[in-house]
Each structure stands twice: as structure tokens, then as C-alpha cells.
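Support request, please re-run this one:
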Amino acid sequence: MSLRLLGGKARSFSLVAPSSKTRPTQVQLKRRFFDRYQDWSGETFIDLAAGTGSMGLEAWSRGAEAVYLVEADRVAAGQIKEACQRARARFDNLGELHAVHADLLQWLPGFKTLYQSWSPERQELTTVFFDPPYELHSLYTDCLKFFFDSNSQWFRGEFVFESDRQKGPALEGLKAVYQFQEQLYTQGTSYLCVISCVK
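Re-run finished. Output below.
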């Protein structure tokens, strides 16, 4: 399956979904999310369970200063690395691209250390996007717990996750546990949940 970036300097750049196991974010959901604002200059975008890398690369195309694409599946991670190489070769005046082959829960503690070394301004201008297979309810819980179940409230950016009202964990249950206020973008039963953590 072929995908293309929707906007920015790398608009129409093509990506490939490596297998039927990879479920890219629906085009309409993606468009609504990025229509919130077009210019991502100065932003850092963390794409967890990146799949095709389309969300992170979309932010990069629109000016993100640095993008991290974290994917555990070896084949998908290889496709992301190849896409990043092609993108850098073609658009060498855009921001940093980091293709990471890693289990996201093992990668996150190192990210937290890196994040805490950044300036307060960069911390606030960081978006974490999380889009695992909808059925992996425990992964949603573990990731949300990492970012929100802490007295230190260390994360100060924006956290976005994609899920589905039929296949994913119950949104109301997640809200009850982690006490967040959200903005939703929906398409059918799928949705993006945007949580602003900026103090």
C-alpha cells in the first residue's frame, strides 16, 4: 500500500506500508490533526509505534525541528529507515530525522532522560504521538502510565494517542485513571485524543 504526505515542503513524498499488520492513520484523521496548525517550525515530534512513519514525517515536512520514529517491528523499522534516507536525500534543508528500531517501553526511559535535558521551551514544543494496534490495551495503559501516573508530572508538551471506540481501550476508563482533559478528532469509530500537558 502506498501513502503520501499531505502537506509541507515534502508534500506528496511517498511511503510504503510494509505489511497488512501495519495500520496507517486514516487520511481524514491525519488531515484534521495537521489542519490545527500548518507550521511545525521549532517543534519536536515523537512518533511511537510509528508503523509507516507517516505522522512523524508529516510533521517533519511541515517544519518540525526534530522527529523520532520509534518502531519495534523489524520490517517496518527497516522501511522507515529507508524512507528517512530517501527523504533526507531529497529534502536536505529540513529538520533532523531519527529512525529508531526499539521496543517503545524500553526506549521511553532513555527518552525521558533526553527530554529532561532540553530547555523548558523545547519541552513545551514537543508532541508525542502514540498509535499502537488498537487491540493492545495493556500497551495503552503502560504508555499512559509512563507519561501521566507520576507525582513529578515531568512531561510538559502535548501527548496524542490514536484509538478506536470498538477495538481500543475505553476512553472514559482511561480518563478516570489518568485525569486528563482532551480534544478529540473522530473518523467513524476511530479517533485521535489530544492532551495538552503545558503548564
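The chain has one domain: 2-18+26-196. The chain has a mean pLDDT of 91.
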